[in-house]
Specification:
single chain, FAD/NAD(P)-binding domain, nine-stranded mixed β-sheet, eight-stranded mixed β-sheet
């Protein structure tokens, strides 16, 4: 309502150009209709994050391809632990495992079920490096510490392999990752980035350009491609469920249907309240990411403006002849382009193409989602034009302003892990290890990430979502131009 009243009042900025721009922006997002039943501004962005998130998981290939155990009971009494972890996605599960390995007692709370959020819905791509690239680390930490951060991203991939081997997690792990570029300009950018990556960080790729691209991927859409086998892909929900079993085998107490409603400090530590119980602990780890503000708005207000929820979507085809899959992507690698609005895809263990992309910077699901995603897929692989789509789903990932991970402390007893920005499959394992090290008294590696400066998204609670959505139109336009 503040914006609506502001339009009717004299604007205090300089000159009529600013008044005109302000009114144009207001009308673009708020509309002209006085009959709008949603009185708050920017009604198009008011769809509930929680409601959208629940609906988007109703036709998930991942949920359809696992057999979940019955729900774990919610917390229904006061309990004590060394550490309470909020959020049973990849970050929280990995933190719980690492803490338990260090002899600490852990209670893990989740408002829904294990892997219900982004951890159980994502593209399953475990990628070396971070979504931000190395630039924020080089600029803010210097070259030596930036190299330490890069080496930790390699460790993040190793953690996945270690977890799979140690706990016998059957999650369809496949090594191999393919970077692709769909225009001449993007190809030059990809090759430049790969040169820097090899020179400064030692990650070499098998690079193909022009007609040679067909050696790595059978699509005429791409001008360049590069393969490396450090990264890889997996079934994320199987991995999350396996991590939960691993955590419980180490003594972690896991409660589903137990949102953390509030947190208060005490003489001995802190108390986290749930609807029917409470946890008294010496430390807390907040690992709810973009859902934390929606589920527990009072819990960590200073964190809310530092990340934004971004919707991302995936379709799953019917099963394809394995020989055809091998012709399309001979290495069976995960694939991702280098556009700002990405296409990413891979084959599942049962030979379906899982094709992701089409982001939303509001909580609204894009119209004609399945049809649009199918069109994007067929542009890359025309031979799949007659293959049915069996599944379509999506969810929300958390992005930080600079796309770098955001790890830190709210106090000496409260730690947080967020801002994975689409690279969480691998980086969450590292995050869990670093926060456990810090709580156990060895904080140097955690503090390396905590030194990264993060700025809030501009616009405040009311304007930041429409402002981001408007900004993304520019990047989509640039992608369209090639």
């Amino acid at each position: 309502m503040q914006v609506a009243s502001a339009e009717r009042q004299p604007y205090t900025g300089k000159g009529s150009r600013y008044r005109l721009r302000y009114r144009l922006v207001y009308r673009l997002f708020c509309g002209y209709s006085r009959g709008n039943r949603l009185p708050a501004p920017f009604a198009m962005f008011q769809t509930s994050l929680l409601r959208s998130d629940t609906v988007l998981n109703q036709h998930s290939y991942y949920e359809a391809s696992v057999q979940r155990a019955p729900p774990r009971p919610p917390l229904a009494e006061p309990v004590q632990a060394d550490v309470v972890v909020v959020g049973a996605g990849f970050a929280g599960l990995n933190a719980a495992i690492e803490l338990a390995d260090r002899g600490l007692s852990v209670v893990l709370l989740d408002a829904e079920r294990v892997g219900f959020g982004a951890s159980g819905r994502n593209g399953g791509q475990a990628i070396v490096g971070f979504a931000s690239g190395q630039e924020p680390f080089e600029q803010q930490l210097g070259r030596a510490d930036a190299r330490r951060v890069w080496d930790m991203s390699l460790e993040a991939i190793a953690i996945i392999r270690e977890r799979i081997a140690r706990f016998g997690i059957a999650c369809d792990w496949v090594p191999g990752y393919l970077y692709v570029a769909d225009s001449a300009r993007k190809a030059r950018q990809l090759l430049d980035d790969l040169d820097v990556q090899a020179r400064d960080y030692g990650l070499s790729c098998d690079v193909a350009t022009g007609a040679d691209v067909s050696r790595l991927i059978a699509s005429e859409r791409y001008h360049a491609a590069a393969y490396e086998n450090t990264s890889g892909h997996l079934h994320p929900l199987k991995y999350a469920l396996g991590l939960a079993q691993a955590a419980e085998s180490l003594g972690v107490r896991l409660f589903e249907g137990s949102p953390a409603l509030s947190m208060a400090t005490t003489a001995s530590g802190l108390t986290v309240q749930t609807p029917h119980g409470q946890v008294q602990a010496r430390f807390a780890v907040l690992a709810g990411n973009c859902m934390l503000s929606a589920i527990s708005p009072q819990l960590a207000r200073p964190l809310h403006s530092r990340i934004m929820p971004v919707g991302t979507y995936i379709i799953g085809t019917a099963a394809i002849d394995p020989a055809h899959c091998q012709r399309l992507i001979p290495s069976n690698a995960a694939v991702c382009d280098n556009n700002f609005v990405l296409d990413y895809f891979r084959f599942s263990a049962d030979h379906r193409l899982l094709f992701g992309g089409r982001v939303s910077y509001t909580t609204m699901t894009p119209p004609r989602l399945q049809a649009v995603m199918r069109e994007r897929m067929v542009r890359i692989f025309p031979a799949l034009k007659d293959v049915p789509v069996d599944y379509v789903w999506g969810g929300f990932v958390d992005i930080s302003m600079n796309r770098a991970p955001d790890f830190g402390r709210l106090s000496s007893k409260v730690y947080y892990l967020q801002g994975f920005s689409g690279h969480g499959v691998a980086a969450t394992g590292l995050a869990g290890r670093l926060v456990a090290e810090a709580i156990a008294g060895q904080a140097s590696r955690f503090d390396l990430f905590a030194r990264i400066r993060h700025t809030p998204f501009p616009g405040g609670a009311m304007l930041r979502t429409p402002a981001l959505a408007l900004g993304m139109l520019w990047y989509r336009f640039k992608d369209a131009l090639g």
